[in-house]
């Protein structure tokens, strides 16, 4: 039954599914690692047991989220070779080293200190353990740095030269490749999005426990910290997003045209279309609700500035307008909803009712998963808006795919869907189960085995025996068993 399907479309769906599933976890773990570093730093500075309790409470959740992020990320790298072999061949000399740097500088750093962070609090000194936590947090940022550099180069490719065999080769300085024109904007916008994702998860969990017990000091503290983050960082994120949009207008104008729903050019100022139904056949947005000349004011800082539309772009180079139009509005709408919750919390804090306003807690609880939806909507806007190119302006998506038959891609896609929802669904359920638990004094943190390492040879003392008394040791393997 798969013979009638398009292998290219299936390959795109497969990568979109796996990358969206994967990005949920790094978007959470990047911010949560920094939050853990802040909690441990506050504990070391103040000596308050409350901060240590919260550190151990969220450390368990971080361990699960980090593990699922690593596992889900491995799958994507294999797809470069299976479904996108032409892309790997042509762009490998540029993106291959960057992804290798991510493994060498970030993943090794995270993995090296993660064990100390999870299990070493009783084994090493406080300062060394805090250093391990800082290194894990720094490693998550470095990982985002390299991955976003790769993606940004695909959006705004610079610093390369074309080889005789059609490959993209480094030309001149690697700095031109790493720090390509869109990279600084995308890095700031994405990392702030990860921090806000974590803030609203923490705020939602704190709100959940405040609705059940307003006197819980641990819930009060995490809710207060999350609301400070929302109130202070969301305005910065909106500004960073605006700067990123202006950069996109300069380098990828058709993406912005699709985001704004501008099928036609506007020589005397373009309207800001708030809502509507894009109709690519009639080249218009039906039932549009718009603000006259506001789009020119935002994008050009002049209400009468002309803005080109998709009528200036060849039809075979235009992205799918409907998807980009709505994903952009979902992202922006959730951003302003976050701003509203942050401002609401400031009013409550000013009136000394931060822990008493039930409706604020309910709103924060509802907004708990909003960061995940916003980052996925943002990536849909970025990636679909780049179409029909995988390397913008240079390599089309339909020229980058592997020569596979549709049944092969469809079968692996179905397998991914089943396995992902089974495995990662169980992991998400367990995270929610941990969040449902009430944070309390004396949190245990990540549990370790009680029997120690498994030995493959020699005598293994039982857990109740006294290792110092040789008469209590088993005489042979059969007795030990």
TrEMBL record:
<keyword id="KW-0349">Heme</keyword>
<feature type="compositionally biased region" description="Basic and acidic residues">
    <location>
        <begin position="472"/>
        <end position="481"/>
    </location>
</feature>
<keyword id="KW-0813">Transport</keyword>
<dbReference type="GO" id="GO:0016682">
    <property type="term" value="F:oxidoreductase activity, acting on diphenols and related substances as donors, oxygen as acceptor"/>
</dbReference>
<keyword id="KW-0472">Membrane</keyword>
<feature type="transmembrane region" description="Helical">
    <location>
        <begin position="323"/>
        <end position="347"/>
    </location>
</feature>
<dbReference type="GO" id="GO:0070069">
    <property type="term" value="C:cytochrome complex"/>
</dbReference>
<dbReference type="GO" id="GO:0020037">
    <property type="term" value="F:heme binding"/>
</dbReference>
<protein>
    <submittedName>
        <fullName>Cytochrome ubiquinol oxidase subunit I</fullName>
    </submittedName>
</protein>
<comment type="similarity">
    <text>Belongs to the cytochrome ubiquinol oxidase subunit 1 family.</text>
</comment>
<feature type="transmembrane region" description="Helical">
    <location>
        <begin position="223"/>
        <end position="240"/>
    </location>
</feature>
<dbReference type="GO" id="GO:0005886">
    <property type="term" value="C:plasma membrane"/>
</dbReference>
<keyword id="KW-1003">Cell membrane</keyword>
<feature type="transmembrane region" description="Helical">
    <location>
        <begin position="359"/>
        <end position="380"/>
    </location>
</feature>
<keyword id="KW-1133">Transmembrane helix</keyword>
<dbReference type="Pfam" id="PF01654">
    <property type="entry name" value="Cyt_bd_oxida_I"/>
</dbReference>
<dbReference type="GO" id="GO:0019646">
    <property type="term" value="P:aerobic electron transport chain"/>
</dbReference>
<keyword id="KW-0812">Transmembrane</keyword>
<keyword id="KW-0408">Iron</keyword>
<feature type="region of interest" description="Disordered">
    <location>
        <begin position="442"/>
        <end position="481"/>
    </location>
</feature>
<keyword id="KW-0479">Metal-binding</keyword>
<dbReference type="GO" id="GO:0009055">
    <property type="term" value="F:electron transfer activity"/>
</dbReference>
<keyword id="KW-0249">Electron transport</keyword>
<dbReference type="InterPro" id="IPR002585">
    <property type="entry name" value="Cyt-d_ubiquinol_oxidase_su_1"/>
</dbReference>
<dbReference type="GO" id="GO:0046872">
    <property type="term" value="F:metal ion binding"/>
</dbReference>
<feature type="transmembrane region" description="Helical">
    <location>
        <begin position="57"/>
        <end position="78"/>
    </location>
</feature>
<feature type="transmembrane region" description="Helical">
    <location>
        <begin position="20"/>
        <end position="45"/>
    </location>
</feature>
<feature type="transmembrane region" description="Helical">
    <location>
        <begin position="98"/>
        <end position="121"/>
    </location>
</feature>
<feature type="transmembrane region" description="Helical">
    <location>
        <begin position="404"/>
        <end position="432"/>
    </location>
</feature>
<feature type="transmembrane region" description="Helical">
    <location>
        <begin position="192"/>
        <end position="211"/>
    </location>
</feature>
<feature type="transmembrane region" description="Helical">
    <location>
        <begin position="128"/>
        <end position="148"/>
    </location>
</feature>
